[in-house]
Amino acid sequence: MDHIKIVFSKDTILDNTLFNIHVNDVGVDHAVNENQIHIRTDAVGWGVNNLSIKVLSELNQKTLKIEEFWLNGAHGRQTVYLSYSELNGKKFNNTFLKQSITEINIPFGNPMSWWITSCNKKVDINNYGKDLYEDNFIYYPASREIDSKFPRAQRDFFKYDFDWRIAPKSHMKNLEQTRTIPYFELGLEYDEDSLYQELDRNLDLLDQHKLPKPKQEEYNQIEYPGNDWDVYACIFPKEKTGSTNWKDNFCLAKDQFPGVYELLEKIDQLGITISYGFISRTAGESYVGPHIHKDSEFNYSVYQVSIPLGWTEQSLFKLEGVGVIPTDRCVVFDDCSNFHATVNPTHKTRYIIGINCDFTKYFS
């Protein structure tokens, strides 16, 4: 059992103040002693964790300031500097609880020695005390429990994470040079149901463009027999055809996949340069283990426009060091730098249309 101690300013008396506290989204009991809150819990995991503290009492003119955070007797000042609240959907550094701001999120790491080292590597010491969320995207992966029927390594990938990310917002303008932005939402509109049905009824045609699986899948099958997923090419890379025009490299039958072709035209019209594309299929009760996309033969762009089809809240897509990303909309992520994995515990097949693109013109 782990011991968390939160210390408020010396003149604070908490005895009559009510709090609601969660560690990794698990409600935890706590004890108040003068200006300190003590939590003893099994909810702390290895790697990145999150504590949320919400004050339930009326504070009126009273302000509560958090000054120290301790985990198992180890003090981590960086944790206090990374604490944040949200207002109108926007994060900002904060260590104060008051009538207008009643909740604070405190990211922390276990063991504390690793967390201190990680924080000092990622954040310049001169920037502590500033509002880090004003100029940076900061990602703290949340622990997710998946069904125990899946292999241990897959379960651990979703449950634990020994990385987190901080990326200057200014890097969006040249993301392919900096490659610090793990993902962003594109806002691309598409007919999910229509595209899903188009792929589902043409699996025999997709099978003609099935791509080879990595050798690791042989071991995955031994550990979890019946794991069922495939990847199919839909746009050949320019190195294979000699053409830089995606329309020349589209390898599916346009009359059988009109929705996919129309989707690609929409991406093209946004000023995004298409370089390579594939379609992945994961059957129900199957998964894809942690991997990145690197190919020594083809030099295609590293950022992938990812269009999920048929996903539910139970079907998860995780980036290492970032956490579970949205699967109800189009996102763009660096698939050559970020280890990622998916799990589909439902009985329904789900698809992803993945299009690697160059965003130079899009952001110019």
Could you explain the architecture of this structure?
- The mean pLDDT is 93.
- Strand 4 and strand 5 form a beta hairpin.
- This protein folds into 2 domains: 139 residues, Lipoxygenase-1 (Sandwich); 190 residues, B-lactam Antibiotic, Isopenicillin N Synthase, Chain (Jelly Rolls).
- The longest helix is centred in the C-terminal third of the chain and has 12 residues.
- The protein is α+β, with helices and mostly antiparallel strands and 364 residues long.
- Strands 1, 4, 5, 7, 8 and 11 form a 6-stranded antiparallel beta sheet that branches. It has a 6-stranded antiparallel beta sheet with strand order 15-22-19-24-17-16.
- It is elongated and about 75 Å long.
- The protein has 12 helices and 24 strands.
Overview in brief:
This protein is of the alpha+beta class and 364 residues long. It folds into 2 domains: 2-140, Lipoxygenase-1 (Sandwich), CATH 2.60.60.40; 174-363, Jelly Rolls (Sandwich). 21% of the residues lie in helices and 34% in strands.
Globally, the shape reads: elongated
**Main CATH class of the largest domain:** Mainly Beta
Major beta sheet summary? 6 strands, antiparallel
CATH names the topology of the largest domain as Jelly Rolls
Number of helices: 12
Helix/strand-derived class? Answer: alpha+beta
From the 3D coordinates, which CATH architecture of the largest domain would you assign? Sandwich
Helix content estimate: 10-25%
Distance linking N and C termini: 52 Å
CATH superfamily of the largest domain: B-lactam Antibiotic, Isopenicillin N Synthase, Chain
Rounded mean pLDDT is 93
Strand content: 25-35%
Uncertain segments: none
**Could you tell me the number of beta strands?**
24
- When the domains are counted, the total is 2
Cα-atom Rg, whole angstroms?
A: 23 Å
